[in-house]
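In practice, a research group might receive sequence data for several interacting partners and want a quick structural hypothesis before committing to experiments. The following worked case mirrors that situation: the sequences arrive first, and a predicted assembly follows.
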Amino acid sequence: DTAVSQTPKYLVTQMGNDKSIKCEQNLGHDTMYWYKQDSKKFLKIMFSYNNKELIINETVPNRFSPKSPDKAHLNLHINSLELGDSAVYFCASSQGFQPQHFGDGTRLSIL
Amino acid sequence: GENVEQHPSTLSVQEGDSAVIKCTYSDSASNYFPWYKQELGKGPQLIIDIRSNVGEKKDQRIAVTLNKTAKHFSLHITETQPEDSAVYFCAASFAGGGADGLTFGKGTHLIIQP
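A structural hypothesis for the assembly, expressed as tokens:
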């Protein structure tokens, strides 16, 4: 069983569209995260949620809206997609002082 | 906020030799330092981590050292094998048990030459 799973794996869309990425973890963790990896492989935290509550929002444009329906799921909705949003988006989860586990990423390409 | 510098950006070693990747961090409050390995098309996978109350940790061919005073930590891989080829990331955070995000270095592309 995959511990942290993201869907879709690939997402190709036009500029200006709205899209969502879904993340689910089956590890029973309380905390979930979204990271963005740019074309130079730089990984940067976007959001973290603890027990469905937003904890970190790292100067991300408000076109990005995370939603956590329950502590096993953290979805990312992006409005009015821009060329600069092209990246790989990673979901991760952790519990307390334990390490973060990452999904395999969603590769978003904006045409 | 925290800033993590990682060197080198690319490291090429002969199979069987050792590889060392170095990182420095800026925030003295950081107390948790994981290392991740990322293979092509995959997410980062934790390979080893160290907390600030420990100076060194070893797991088979992989070891990490931490110098809190100098604010730097290093990854050592001995007897390198072809499957060690990947991008390696160091990271730092304040692991207070909450939802602290990791601050990553920019990665090292490790190439193992046969």
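Before designing any experiment, note the following. Chain A touches chain B at residues 4, 31, 33, 35, 40-45, 48-50, 55-56, 58, 90, 92, 96-97, 99-105 (CB under 8 Å). Chain A has a mean pLDDT of 93.
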